[in-house]
From TrEMBL:
Organism (species): Aegilops tauschii subsp. strangulata (Goatgrass)
Name of the protein this chain belongs to: P-type ATPase A domain-containing protein
Cited Pfam families: E1-E2_ATPase, Hydrolase
InterPro entries for the chain: ATPase_P-typ_cyto_dom_N, ATPase_P-typ_P_site, ATPase_P-typ_TM_dom_sf, ATPase_P-typ_transduc_dom_A_sf, ATPase_P-type_domA, HAD-like_sf, HAD_sf, P-typ_ATPase_IB
Highest rank taxon of the organism: Eukaryota
PANTHER family in alphabetical order: COPPER-TRANSPORTING ATPASE RAN1, P-TYPE CATION-TRANSPORTING ATPASE
Cellular component annotations (GO), alphabetically ordered: membrane
Chief place where the protein resides: membrane
Protein's cellular compartments: Membrane
Membership in a protein family: Belongs to the cation transport ATPase (P-type) (TC 3.A.3) family. Type IB subfamily.
Residue spans crossing the bilayer: 61-85, 105-127, 443-466, 472-492
Gene3D superfamilies, sorted: Calcium-transporting ATPase, cytoplasmic domain N, Calcium-transporting ATPase, cytoplasmic transduction domain A, HAD superfamily/HAD-like
Residue span(s) of domain P-type ATPase A: 1-49
Amino acid sequence: MITGESAPMPKEVSSVVIGGTINLQGILHIQATKVGSGTVLSQIISLVETAQMSKAPIQKFADYVASIFVPIVITLSILTFSVWFLCGSFGAYPHSWFDGTSNCFVFSLMFSISVVVIACPCALGLATPTAVMVATGIGANHGVLVKGGDALERAQNVNYVIFDKTGTLTQGKAVVTTAKVFSGMDLGDFLTLVASAEASSEHPLAKAVLEYAFHFHFFGKLPSSKDGIEQRKEQILSQWLLEAEDFSAVPGKGVQCLINDKKVLIGNRALMNENGVTVPPEAESFLVDLELNAKTGILVAYDSSFVGLMGIADPLKREAAVVVEGLKKMGIHPVMLTGDNWRTAQAVAKEVGIEDVRAEVMPAGKADVVRSLQKDGSIVAMVGDGINDSPALAAADVGMAIGGGTDIAIEAADYVLVRNNLEDVITAIDLSRKTFNRIRWNYFFAMAYNVVAIPVAAGALFPLTGLQMPPWLAGACMAFSSVSVVCSSLLLRRYRKPRLTTLLQITVE
C-alpha cells in the first residue's frame, strides 16, 4: 500500500507494520505506536489536503477583460454622444442628417445607445465555459472524467508526465511468464506438482502459479459462461490436484509440504540452500536472466532434488510503450516514479522507453519529486492509482487517477481515466489542447465582433455611407455574436481522439 512494491514484504519481530495493509499468513501480535492523526494513512490524507490548498487559482483572461470591458463601453458611449452632440451644436455636420422630427440631442443619443447595446461582454464570458462544458462531456464519452476547467486548462501546457509503475504502467497483477523443467519430469506433471503445493497458500504469487497450471491443463475445455467456468473450476481443482500434507509457509522464503510422502520445496535461493538443494549452473544462469528482466524466479525441488523453476512478472500494459513514445512526439518528457527497487524499476523503464527513473521513493517523497520538477515553472502531470500516489497526484498541476485505483487517489486527482487505459493520458492532453485552441478562436470571434461593431454603432461610417444602426438592430447583432461563440464551442463535438496507430505521427506544433 505504501511502497507500491509488486511483491509482499516479509515482517519479523520488532518490524513496523502499517494499519490498512494486509497480513497474508500467520498471526500478528502488534502494539499501536501511532493512532488517529499520527497514522501513516492520516499523514497521507494531510499531505493531499495541503497540496490541494496550495494550488494557486488561475487568473482567466476573460475575467480580466470583463472587469474593464463595461467601464470602457460606458466611456465610449458617453464619448460618442459628446462628439456627435458638440459637432452638431457647432454646425460641424448639416442638420439634414437628422430628420425634422428629431434634433441634435436625440440624433446623438441614438448613436450612444447603439454603442451600449451592441457591445457584447456576453460573448467573452461564454468563450471559456461553453467550450469547457462541451469538452468535459466529450471527455466523459471517451472515458476521461475532468473535474474542472482549471485542470483542462493546465493540461494543454504539460511538460512532464510522471507515471507510477505498479498498476499504472504495469497491470498490477502477477502472472507466470515462464516455466522450465531442468530434470526428466514432464512439464504438465511439474505444473501439477507446483500447483498442488501452492493451492494451500494465500500468497499472490501462489495464486498466479495455480492459475497458470490450471490454464495449461484445461484451456479450451471449460464452458463458455462465466458462472459455468467457476463451478467447473472448483470441481476440477478438487479432483486434479494432488494431496499436500504438512504444508507450511516459510516467511520471506517460500513454502514446503509433502506430496506422495516426498518433500516439496517452492521458493527462493535461501529456501533451497537451507535444505541442501543444489541449483545447477544452467538453472542459476536462467534465473539471473529472469531477474534482470524484472521477473521473480521461483525454484522448485522435489525429494531433495532440483526440478525446475518458474518466472513470475507484473506484465506491462500492452499500450504502455506506444503511449510513452507518443508523449515524446508531443514534446512531453515522461518520467517513471515508483516505490519499487531500482533493478526492477530500471528494467521496466527500459522496456517502455523511459530514461528518467526515480525508484524507492516513499509517498511524501513522490510529492517532493513533483515539486522539484515544478521549480523552473514546468507544468507536471502525474498518473497513478494507489494510496501511495495520492500526495503526488494532489501536488501535480494535473493529477490523473486510473479508474480502477484507490478511492483516495481518485479523490486527489483532477482527471479520472475510467477505462484503466494509458491511451487516455494522450486523449486527456490532446482534448485539452484542442479545447483551448477552440477557446482562442472564441475569444477572436468575440473580440473581432466588438472591435468592428462598436465603431459602426458609434457612427464611424455614417458620414461616408449614411449608415446608422438603430438600437433594435444593435441588439440583434449582440445576440448573434453570443450564438456564434456557442456554435463555435459546439464544433468540439466533432472531436476524435488519437488512435494508437496514429499516436507516433503526432508532432509538436
